[in-house]
Amino acid sequence: MAIHDITTIEDIKLLVNTFYDKVQKDTYIGVIFNEKIQKRWPEHLEKMYKFWQTILLEQHTYSGSPFPPHKHLPVDQSHFDRWMEIFTETVDSLFKGIVAEEAKVRAANMAYMFNYKIEYFRNLEKKL
Length: 128
Fold this sequence. Notes:
Largest sheet: none
CATH superfamily: Globins
Keywords: Heme, Iron, Metal-binding, Transport
Organism: Flavobacterium shii
CATH architecture: Orthogonal Bundle
GO molecular function, one term: metal ion binding
Pfam family, one: Bac_globin
Protein name: Group III truncated hemoglobin
CATH class: Mainly Alpha
Number of helices: 5
């Protein structure tokens, strides 16, 4: 099968399913995801399809705020680094093109912002 760019919802589902399958099995970040999501993986995956479909295909199917569920996770920069490593490997193994590159840029920006905000709220709570 030739590697192509991300162009359809089927591509998004392949990306999301492959990525989160790796995440669930990962010895470093898998425990955090599995503990938080537990038996709600189907709902989480469905939400992720819509999130990435909205961002990458500009088909507005996602609504909501992605940060709040992550606010109190026991994570730091090293967890986001591992998340990005798995995400980048997954994208590169499945897709090639402008949208695939955009997916990696968007994921990196999101990882940076989530880590920054988690640290910000942690430091704020320490001061209170």
